[in-house]
Amino acid sequence: LERMERALALIGNPHLRLRAIHIAGTKGKGSVAAMLDACLRAAGYKVGLYTKPHLVNLSERTRIDGCEIAAARMLGYIERLRAIFASAGLGLTFFEFTVALMFLYFAEEKVDIAVIETGLGGRLDSTNVVTPILSVITPIGFDHMEYLGYTIAAIAGEKGGIIKNDVPVVIGARDAEARLALTSIAAQRRSTVRLIDRDFS
Is residue 158 within 8 Å of residue 123, measured between CB atoms? Predict the structure, then answer.
């Protein structure tokens, strides 16, 4: 994550100004993010929502109060960030760049809370520079095994990388191996756990 941290330092560390909910898992990340976004907006909060992938337009990934970032606004951010990163000799991946743009947009728009979905995995995901107020792990299955590992426990360990010290976590995984891996990480990091089928249905 060093490259991501360097990129964000160049633009004033916008991720440090956000209150965020961070979501990882194999299945259901988008649904959980959409439901949290809807609940929080209904409660009167100004909510930033970052999901992936986009289906038609890149602007779909980054929304505030349900509205996609305007194309002209996004283009302005792209031009601004490209100039900053190029002058620093910093080459980012496409995903890293969209994450940096999202953090800056949400911080400058002063959202009350940002609901952020990881890309691939969790531990080494570009979004994992944020320290959230809540982490959420959805069900775990076999995905991107060449990057995340070939067992459910290994994959859960990567997804569980978003669990932070003293930050509560909601775990929606039902697989026994995944639950053990995730609750073990939470215990090591003193994270209060809310576990599906134990604490909620």
Answer: yes
